């Protein structure tokens, strides 16, 4: 179990980045996530443009556990190298999130900001 609380994501000034931006907010000291790992995470996601939250595992009261290979490209690229106990912010442009506008997902065409707490790796 983690002693962390749900993070607040600060509004990011300036234009949306065109590339994945990875920022370690807390560096963990546990096992390291690798491509192909299954990860146990808590996360919050907001839209870059508005700062509006669209999803958060914290709101459901439990973390989620899934193989990295089944996630959006921004997570597949942004989580490896992270260590258990860490908190990382990922800013994912549309091509690394849900694709260009009109892609059929409600978040298509949007740059997304996630704060991810890595709780476990297997």
TrEMBL record:
InterPro entries registered for this protein in UniProt: PPIase_dom_sf (IPR046357), PPIase_FKBP_dom (IPR001179)
Catalytic reaction equation(s): [protein]-peptidylproline (omega=180) = [protein]-peptidylproline (omega=0)
GO molecular function: peptidyl-prolyl cis-trans isomerase activity
Broad EC category: isomerase
Domain PPIase FKBP-type: 36-122
Domain of life: Bacteria
Protein EC: 5.2.1.8
SUPFAM superfamilies: FKBP-like
Residues spanning the membrane: none
Name of protein: Peptidyl-prolyl cis-trans isomerase
Organism: Microcella pacifica
């Amino acid at each position: 179990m983690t002693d962390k609380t749900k993070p607040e994501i600060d509004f990011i000034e300036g234009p949306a980045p065109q590339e994945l931006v990875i920022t370690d907010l807390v560096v963990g000291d546990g096992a390291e996530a690798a491509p192909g790992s299954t990860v146990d995470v808590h996360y919050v996601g907001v839209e870059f443009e508005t700062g509006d939250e669209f999803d958060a595992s914290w709101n459901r009261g439990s973390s989620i556990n899934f193989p990295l290979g089944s996630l959006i490209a921004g997570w597949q690229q942004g989580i490896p190298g992270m260590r258990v106990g860490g908190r990382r912010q990922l800013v994912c442009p549309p091509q690394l999130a849900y694709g260009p506008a009109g892609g059929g997902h409600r978040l298509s065409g949007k740059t997304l900001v996630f704060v991810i707490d890595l709780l476990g790796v297997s």
